[in-house]
What we know:
Layout: H1 16-53, E1 60-63, E2 68-74, E3 78-84, E4 87-92, E5 96-100, H2 104-107
Antiparallel strand pairs: 1-2, 1-5, 2-3, 3-4
Amino acid sequence: MFISNAYAQAAAGGDLQSNLLNMWPLLLMVVVMYFLMIRPQMKRQKDQRAMMDALAKNDEVVTAGGILGKVSKVTDAYVTIEVANGTEVIVQKMSITMMLPKGTIKAI
């Protein structure tokens, strides 16, 4: 009396057009994710790699820990940074986050 009967839904006929319409939101989400997340991350990685390859002696840099210094030696995997007169720190190349314009450290 209060509960209505529940009937099984008819089986889908396998219509190709209806299947594509059902997948449209999923495909749209994948495309949006690519343009909003994946593509910018790949661009940042490319820029970071180019900056690390361009590191040279006397460049002023900032490390991931926030240390400012002048590059005194560059090897394949490590960079020696002079943080003060006579004080050098060896860091991994991957920890260099930014190159500063020349003269920035003296201005601080």
